[in-house]
Amino acid sequence: MSNVVRCATNEIATELTTETLLQLADRRIGxxxxxxxxxxxxxxxxxxxxxxxxxxxxxxKLHTSSVGRVYMPHIDTKWDPELTKQYHDAALxxxxxxxxxxxxxxxxxxxVRLELQELxxxxxxxxxxxxxxxxVGAFRVFQPTTSEFYPHNDAIDQETDAPEIQGxxxxxxxxxxxxxxxxGGDLQLWLREPTREETDIILDVEGLDxxxxxxPVHQIHxxxxxxxxxxxxxxxxVTPGHGKHxxxxxxxxxxxxxxxxxxxxx
Length: 266
Prior knowledge:
This protein is α+β, with helices and mostly antiparallel strands. The protein has 5 helices and 18 strands. It has helices at residues 18-25, 40-51, 81-102, 108-119, 196-205, and strands at residues 12-13, 31-34, 56-58, 67-70, 124-126, 128-129, 132-133, 138-142, 149-152, 170-179, 183-184, 187-189, 218-220, 227-230, 236-238, 241-242, 246-255, 262-265. The strands form 4 sheets. Strands 1, 2, 3, 4, 5, 8, 10, 14, 17 and 18 form a 10-stranded mixed beta sheet that branches. Strands 9-15-12-13 form a 4-stranded antiparallel beta sheet, with no helix packed on it.
């Protein structure tokens, strides 16, 4: 697999700092995992609100359709102008609604946004595509037993050709876990990008048959309140959970290097 980009090391940092962010962006480490990043009791209260939310829908591709999400993520615009317009029209109202679910406390994605704005050398901003604000702060809801993410990757340049994404060097994702089943719901990381052949399959059905790939480098069982940041351009998956829903809040983060601000979206 000589055409595959790999992570330089399999180290997982345990603190969110300027240095660990720069290391992760440069793929000198595999992930950042901060335990107890957000109060677990608040997180679990809001998890139930996400499970019951009237805007709870599902991803649109074969191997992601078992997973629920609150509000449309950018990937589900599917290069369609009308869906893209709907996404941007709803972006700021959706951000405000997600924020209100945590009131009077700071929403976890807002906490990540503020800290990355402070820690990244050039700051951080909300992504705008063709001048229009993007949504950030999506909830992902995995049903017990039936929901999983097959090995896949995510890349903003596979979703849009907007001029604002020119120069993106890497893409990160921040996941803050609101509720996690005692068994399963593990995050798997391969620390390599898919091959060209694997990419074609992922673009078609959003996931690879797990039997066709090697075992992951890391399998992490997060706890409620944990933050994990990694590069979703590399293969990753989520195993089925048992007993209760797995709920997380997420933000994608693009970097064009330390001299340019990070940008956030969902």
